[in-house]
């Protein structure tokens, strides 16, 4: 067990985040204490001992704010409170204190690009009408020809502009890069800037250790509002250099400002507060701009998530990422799954060309996927830097691809005219115990907001905890070794020159070697002092296919 997060009289520890293993909690689907079918803050509190025992260093909680939940809470109606469906501010305070006592840091989610149409400032903007100062806080525009002011597409389908209906008076359009219920803030307005300063301080003062920044590359827009080019006849959402709504230089000014606020907390016992950027930006040269010394601390590296289960491709991603992030003094941050992507057990069980999409129609070998997910976990946790675990990764959960259409909740389903099912398949509530749904997600037999598969009994945390060969116990063992071994966490790696083609093999000082066999045949086990951990049983002094071994050398 780790030491408690310092709260008084202890020297600040200011670099924990460079090597932290962070567990992502999607609050709606993690654990339901009050039995209404939706996860909640008290559910998370009840499972903190599980997370401490798993051996993670921190928890990132996806948005927990008041919200109509039209985009799972990424549509925020009040940045300074807790969604009543999830609990109260007092519950959140208790969670922060209890997590800290167990040595777990707490990161929460900041959604600065847009709010919910239920946010009071947006409602006031609608009411105040055209030309009002209230409308200046968002992107309201007129259009002469009855068409949207630009051709920009929204993330979930359709145009990124919504016209106010004639009965609300003026027919202006507002910008929403995501759902129509998520109006974009105008970050050129000082009131927006100051409001977010205050939101950061509000949560830092309550004790949170940092923020994950949602779509950290989108707040600034090109004020000329140029159209985007067409791709196959449709306006592109590609993040090409010069895109008017992604990766504009203005985002860095905002990040620098936030960094200064986080650094104001350097002398508190907890140490300075930190940020992790969510920005799907490639190549790593571009991402590195976000983690320069006076900007955000770290950024999810999504190139690794997108990479095929292929030695050459993975090695290129690892080298390219580390080279570019280390050049600006930032650690790498590895992630295999999150609440927006198809779970990696399922991805790795498919033909790579279908891996990131094609839910429901693509043949998938889940046994192969599980074997590779085990190998990938040991690769991820052996790489230099920090690592993220999405809730349920540690249980080897697959994507749920046969959710009934009437249960689908992701705005993508409606906005795509029922052609794209969306991201619900990775958001199915966690199976904790028992033989049938709700598998201990909530008390009693009440069913959760998304139905769980009837064959998940062997995947529950309870079922896996007693089985030494389970996915859960592999994670626990790996996290224990990672915690104790001086070579793991932040640092450097050296590729081993004696490894056969198709094998990823690297050494980390002092005395650690990781070997991942991605070929289709066994390879000889390299010389070692001791086998620390292996994702599959080893026989004949060989590393089987799709297996990772950790060696003391
Ligand atoms: O827009 C994209 C690519 O063109 C996406 O990759 C986008 O960056 C990503 O979907 C952002 O996701 C985050 O913000 C969304 C929310 O729905 C997701 O759940 C969240 O992770 C809007 O807040």
UniProtKB/TrEMBL annotation:
Similarity field: Belongs to the glycosyl hydrolase 13 family.
KW Hydrolase (keyword) present: yes
SMART domains: Aamy
Keyword set, alphabetical order: Glycosidase, Hydrolase
Stretches for region Disordered: 405-429
Protein name: Alpha-glucosidase
KW Nucleotide-binding (keyword) present: no
Residues in coiled coil: none
């Amino acid at each position: 067990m780790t030491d408690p997060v310092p709260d008084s009289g202890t020297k600040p520890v200011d670099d924990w985040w460079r090597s932290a293993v962070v567990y992502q909690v999607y609050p709606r689907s993690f654990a339901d204490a009050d039995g209404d079918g939706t996860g909640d803050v008290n559910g998370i509190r009840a499972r903190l001992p599980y997370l401490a025992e798993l051996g993670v260093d921190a928890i990132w909680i996806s948005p927990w704010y008041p919200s109509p939940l039209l985009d799972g809470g990424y549509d925020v109606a009040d940045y300074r409170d807790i969604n009543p469906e999830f609990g109260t501010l007092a519950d959140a305070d208790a969670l922060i204190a209890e997590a800290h006592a167990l040595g777990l840091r707490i990161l929460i989610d900041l959604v600065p690009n847009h709010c919910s149409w239920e946010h009071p400032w947006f409602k006031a903007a609608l009411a105040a009408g055209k030309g009002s100062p209230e409308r200046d806080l968002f992107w309201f525009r007129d259009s002469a020809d009855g068409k949207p002011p630009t051709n920009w597409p929204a993330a979930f389908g359709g145009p990124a502009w919504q016209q106010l209906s004639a009965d609300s008076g003026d027919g202006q359009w507002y910008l929403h890069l995501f759902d129509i219920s998520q109006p974009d803030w105008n970050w050129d307005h000082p009131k927006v800037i100051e409001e977010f300063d205050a939101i950061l301080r509000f949560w830092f003062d309550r004790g949170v250790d940092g923020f994950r920044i949602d779509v950290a590359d989108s707040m600034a827009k090109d004020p000329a509002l140029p159209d985007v080019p067409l791709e196959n006849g449709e306006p592109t959402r590609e993040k090409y250099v010069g895109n008017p709504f992604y990766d504009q230089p203005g985002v860095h000014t905002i990040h620098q400002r936030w960094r200064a606020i986080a650094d104001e907390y350097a002398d508190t016992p907890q140490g300075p507060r930190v940020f992790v950027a969510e920005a799907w930006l490639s190549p790593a040269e571009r991402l590195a701009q976000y983690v320069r010394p006076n900007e955000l601390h770290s950024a999810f590296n999504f190139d690794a998530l997108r990479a095929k289960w292929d030695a050459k491709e993975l090695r290129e991603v690892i080298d390219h990422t580390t080279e570019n992030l280390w050049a600006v003094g930032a650690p790498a941050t590895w992630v295999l799954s999150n609440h927006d992507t198809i779970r990696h057990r399922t991805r790795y069980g498919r033909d790579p060309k279908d891996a990131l999409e094609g839910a429901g129609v693509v043949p998938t070998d889940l046994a192969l996927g599980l074997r590779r997910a085990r190998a990938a976990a040991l690769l991820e946790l052996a790489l230099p830097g920090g690592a993220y675990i999405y809730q349920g990764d540690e249980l080897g959960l697959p994507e749920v691809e046969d959710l009934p259409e009437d249960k689908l909740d992701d705005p993508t389903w409606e906005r795509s005219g029922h052609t794209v099912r969306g991201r619900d398949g990775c958001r199915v509530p966690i199976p904790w115990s028992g033989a049938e749904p709700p598998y201990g997600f909530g008390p009693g037999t009440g069913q959760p907001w998304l139905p769980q598969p009837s064959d998940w009994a062997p995947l529950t945390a309870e079922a896996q905890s007693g089985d030494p060969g389970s996915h859960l116990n592999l994670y626990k063992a790996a996290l224990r070794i990672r915690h104790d071994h001086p070579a793991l966490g932040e640092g450097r790696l050296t590729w081993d020159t004696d490894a056969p083609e198709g094998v990823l093999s690297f050494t980390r000082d002092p005395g650690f070697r990781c070997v991942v066999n991605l070929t289709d045949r066994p390879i000889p086990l390299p010389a070692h002092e001791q086998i620390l951990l292996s994702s599959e049983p080893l026989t004949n002094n060989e590393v089987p296919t799709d297996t990772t071994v950790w060696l003391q050398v």
